[in-house]
């Protein structure tokens, strides 16, 4: 293949090549992106295994509900009473949220067992 050299077009050629090079990922950058993605997948796999272990541990638990704390004495300070009421409502809402999240994870585990997900990490 014969290459044509034109002296006046070197600036144009450099500008064109730099424009094209800036649009594409270099091989070393692509390799690093792949390594980063693989590392992230491995970290997520470890987290999923840890979460499944935690779910299994919770399923084997006693199953007795946590006893409610005794009602505190009535305070005369209205700000303290309001703060206590808000804290109690927030704790109940968070507890409900966590219970629902646990039910979701149990449903996901049951579904993946029924479907027999081939890529399931253990």
The number of distinct helices, counting runs of at least 4 residues, comes to 3
Number of strands: 0
The global form is elongated
- Low-confidence runs of at least 5 consecutive residues: none
Q: Beta-sheet strand percentage?
A: under 5%
Q: Helix- and strand-based class?
A: mainly alpha
**Main sheet specs:** none
Report the C-alpha radius of gyration, rounded: 30 Å
How far is the first residue's CA from the last residue's CA? 56 Å
SSE topology string: HHH
Instruction: Average the pLDDT over all residues and give the rounded result.
Output: 78
Helix content: 55-70%
Tell me what you see in this structure.
- By secondary structure, the chain is mostly helical.
- 70% of the residues lie in helices and 0% in strands.
- The protein contains three helices and no strands.
- The protein has helices at residues 10-23, 27-59, 78-115.
- It is elongated and about 90 Å long.
- The two termini are 56 Å apart.
- The relative contact order is 0.06.
- The model has no long low-confidence stretch (mean pLDDT 78).
């Amino acid at each position: 293949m014969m290459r044509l050299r034109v002296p006046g077009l070197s600036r144009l050629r450099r500008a064109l090549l730099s424009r094209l090079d800036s649009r594409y990922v270099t091989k070393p950058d692509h390799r690093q992106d792949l390594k980063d993605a693989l590392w992230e997948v491995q970290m997520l796999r470890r987290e999923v295994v840890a979460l499944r272990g935690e779910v299994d541990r919770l399923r084997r638990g006693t199953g007795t509900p946590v006893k409610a704390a005794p009602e505190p004495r009535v305070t005369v300070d209205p700000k303290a009473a309001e703060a206590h009421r808000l804290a109690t409502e927030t704790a109940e809402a968070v507890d409900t949220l966590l219970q629902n999240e646990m039910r979701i994870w149990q449903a996901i585990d049951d579904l993946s067992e029924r479907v027999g997900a081939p890529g399931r990490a253990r």
